[in-house]
Amino acid sequence: MGATGAVGAELFRVLERRNFPVAKMRALASGRSAGKKVHFRNEAITVEELGEDSFGKIDIAFFSAGGETSRKFVPIARKAGAIVIDNSSVFRMDPDVPLVIPEINGEDVKQHHGLIANPNCTTAVALMAIYPLHRAFAVRRVFAASYQAVSGSGQRAINELKEQMAAAAEDRPASANRQSGSGPRRGEQSPPQVYPHPIAFNVLPHVDAFLEGGYTKEEMKMQNEGRRIMHLPEFRASVTCVRVPVFRAHSVAVNAEFEKMVSVEQAREVLAKAPGLELVDEPQKNRYPMPLSVAGKDNCEVGRVRLDCALENGLAFWVSGDQLLKGAALNAVQIAELL
Question: Per the confidence metrics, is the pTM higher than 0.90?
Answer without folding.
Answer: yes
